[in-house]
Amino acid sequence: MTVKKYIRYRILSMSGNYVLQITEQSHRNSDFGENGRDTFYASNGVTLASVGGPQWSPSENKLYVWGWVDSFENSMVYLPEKDIEKIEFAISEYNQTFDTCLPEDLFVIE
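-> structure tokens emitted (110 positions)
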């Protein structure tokens, strides 16, 4: 039986600024992607990478998710509003790629 991979997250709106917080992630590092890779390449050009800790790199079009640094698990990632939709798409595609059957509450906008 294959263990399903997923990322659960929420996006918070605070005074016109947006932050993403990962609330649960099933796999990390070399178990995160396919074939022992720590990355996932979404079809919209966004890369999800499980190294270090959470951060958004707009110049690389890369969202770093939970990686080898456990102490960053509660970190919040500040996001420009223009990038939210493509990040949500990439995470959704990651969840679907690994055949994740989860409730529809994968993310919450507060």
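Residues 27-79 form one domain.
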